[in-house]
Write a structure and sequence with these properties.
Length: about 425
């Protein structure tokens, strides 16, 4: 089996396994009697554990030749934790087991990122990663709908956790025997020294990306935890309506990932990032002015389109500037992103208590909009480059950006028709002809 096929199968099975439980973690914690403090602690503690695991894991990953085997072993142990999680009866045990599971999942995380960068060449990396995301979204959608139905009808039955374990182990089994490029080996102490020296942050493009992402993720996380709260408290949304928002997000990712991947390769990473930012920035404001759930569903489509583009383009951009040191650069990126998100989420809760949910969403909108301008500093500009601190406000830059925004989304819609609508039409035609 070719490496590309193994990656696709592994992505599908791991998405199935994760989405059978992860979206319902908070609900399971409440089922076990968790307090609001404990629910918040699960989120913050798992973020801290993930950071520690990656800091410890990256030097070991860089010092071994059997990276894929290491990835399979640690992930398999992580998926086996679903079995004891299904047997517990209090929230303290859940917190302990989820933290351990997070450690095993996070420790070898950079192996997956490095493998994707090695397997998919730069010139088509966007569309390949887009296809991977599409496959993952399909697996998540199937699992989310199935698990939602099972939980509503039967509760958190053990078989749900056993299924998650089975598909998780299967995601590792399909990678057994996979050929990997042998990267330069390092002694573990030398790798540890390099990892914690922070010398890698001296590279201009990487340093700029880390700083920009830290500011942007903090701005996003100021509002993100309040979306569900706003729907529940202000629009009186029930569990079915909340589930529908998540399902719409998965469907949008499924439909647009491949098209966005092609466009990212065609127009460049930076243009795609800049085109995604208005949709992401205005998303909290869409919520504030929404008076009913039907409007939320529509704005979810718009916002998720922006996130599909942003995540794909950022991954591709980071891959392009990390080919000399993939594991460490992805590790630093994830660590700084996680710190910013955790800090933003913590402050979000405090602000909501003081000034209310709507005010927090407005602040998040303003912060997202402000931090978006920093992305103009990413080092992929071609042609005329405006100078000066406020160069992004020059008439040329503004008109060029508007033209680029329109052309990028025109391309996305055109490619979506080719990759989704035309394929569906062809399949239907073949079925009718039989």
């Amino acid at each position: 089996m070719r490496n590309e096929k193994r990656i696709k199968y592994s992505t599908f099975f791991s998405s199935l396994a994760g989405s059978l439980f992860s979206p319902f973690l908070t609900l399971y914690a409440l089922y076990l009697g968790a307090s609001n403090f404990q629910i918040g602690l699960i989120s913050s503690l798992t973020s801290i554990v993930a950071i520690i695991a990656q800091l410890l894991g990256t030097p070991i990953i860089e010092s071994t030749r059997k990276k894929i085997l290491l990835y399979i072993i640690f992930n398999s142990i992580g998926y086996l934790f679903f079995i004891p999680i299904s047997l517990i009866n209090n929230s303290i045990h859940l917190l302990f087991l989820i933290s351990l599971q997070t450690f095993f999942f996070s420790f070898p995380l950079q192996v997956w990122n490095e493998t994707l960068v090695k397997i998919f060449p730069k010139w088509r990396r966007g569309r390949d990663i887009g296809l991977i995301n599409k496959i993952g979204s399909l697996g998540s959608l199937i699992a989310y709908i199935a698990a939602g139905y099972i939980i509503r009808k039967f509760g958190f039955i053990p078989y749900l956790f056993y299924a998650a374990t089975f598909f998780g182990l299967l995601s590792g089994i399909v990678l057994i025997g996979m050929k990997e490029g042998i990267s330069r080996n390092k002694e573990i102490f030398s790798s540890l020294k390099e990892t914690f020296s922070f010398n890698i942050l001296r590279e201009k493009n990487f340093k700029n990306l880390i700083l920009i992402i830290f500011i942007f993720n903090f701005s996003v996380s100021i509002g993100a935890p309040m979306f569900s709260v706003y729907l529940i408290k202000n629009l009186k949304a029930d569990s079915l309506q909340l589930s529908l928002v998540s399902i719409i997000s998965l469907i949008v990712t499924l439909v647009f990932s491949e098209a966005w991947g092609f466009v990212i390769d065609f127009v460049g990473r930076k243009k795609a990032i800049l085109a995604s930012l208005p949709l992401i920035s205005f998303y909290p404001l869409f919520y504030v002015f929404s008076a009913k759930m039907s409007e939320i569903y529509f704005f979810t489509i718009i916002g998720q389109m922006g996130w599909v583009a942003f995540n794909l383009a950022i991954f591709s951009y980071l891959s392009d500037i990390s080919e000399d040191s993939v594991s460490r650069k992805f590790m630093f990126f994830n660590v700084f992103s996680s710190i910013a998100s955790s800090l933003g989420s913590f402050i979000s809760g405090l602000l909501a208590e003081k000034i209310g949910v709507i005010s927090v969403l407005k602040i998040s909108f303003l912060m997202r909009l402000f931090s978006s301008f920093f992305f103009f500093k990413l080092g992929e500009e071609k042609g005329y480059i405006p100078r000066g601190f406020f160069s992004f406000l020059s008439p040329y830059t503004i008109s060029s950006y508007i033209e680029s925004f329109v052309s990028v989304y025109s391309l996305v819609l055109k490619e979506t028709r080719k990759t989704v609508i035309d394929r569906i039409a062809k399949k239907l035609e073949e079925m009718l002809m039989k």
